[in-house]
Amino acid sequence: MIRFLLRTLGLLSLAAAFVFLVYDGTRSISDNRLDFTRVEEVWSLVHPGSLQQLRSFLESHGPHWLWNDYLFGAPAFAALAVLGAILIPLGRRRRPLIGYAR
To answer: Over the stretch 35-89, which tens digit does the pLDDT of each residue have?
Structure first.
């Protein structure tokens, strides 16, 4: 059951990454400049309260560059693609052992 959930979440995040890639690409073409949707923008649209809680936690317990540059300043399609690429292999079945007794 958990493998199914991990694979499903991984595929959904890859699909969302593709949607954001197409959206950012069309917006970049129409604006005639390179423009990406950041993770912070998407998260603030979905649930701004949890974003503020996480921001205060990371500012008090983590390094300052984590909030601004790497975690929430990244393009949304890249973050979702990395998440999907991590979740899909976690949901795979284990290969059967050949030649070993269990």
So the answer is: 899 988 998 999 989 988 888 887 788 777 766 667 788 899 999 999 999 999 9
Vertex 49 angle, CA 45 and 50, to 5°: 95
| pTM for this model (two decimals) | 0.81
48-61 and 39-46 are packed helices; what angle lies between their axes, rounded to 10 degrees?
130
1 by DSSP, 3-state: which?
coil
Domain residue extents for the chain: 1-33+77-92, 38-74
Half-sphere exposure (Cβ direction) of 81: Cα atoms closer than 13 Å: 10
Q: How far is CA 65 from the centre of its chain?
A: 18
Distance (Å, whole) CA 92 – CA 90: 6
**Residue 38, SS3?**
strand
Question: Residue 1 carries which side chain, given as an amino acid letter?
Answer: M
Nearest CA to 77 out of 33, 13, 34 is that of: 13
